[in-house]
Amino acid sequence: MGNIGIGAIIIGLILLLFHVLTFYFMFGYIKRMIVCSEKIYAKVTRVEEDENKHKDSKTGKTVYTYSYKTFFKYDYNGQTYEATKTYDKRSRYDRGDEALIKINPHNPKEIWANGEIIDLLKLSLALPLYAFLDLIYIATVFD
Questions:
Q1: What are 98's strand-pairing partners?
Q2: pTM, full prediction
């Protein structure tokens, strides 16, 4: 097997890895969306801002991105639970807010909160790109 064969295998494995990871996260969102069926109100106990900085590869300038970890506290069947969700760009909630969330009645620590459908849709936008890359890969390798 020559260099082209080994390179094709490596590229194919990288594409496969991206596919597997994307589907893993998508199925996790879909599963939570289905099993989290019980609507309850939760109190937002705190919101933590996480600042990440990195250098822009084109300009070399330092770029700051932020994520927000939101902590929910709620009661279900006489027990108090706490769960967290992380949001990009901005927090959907402020400390002290009352939020309508959905929980999994069989595992009340598992929640579905506002904004997750948008995350699922963003993730699904990668699928057409992967299909395009797959077509290029197949056309190149099996030419």
A1: 43
A2: 0.68
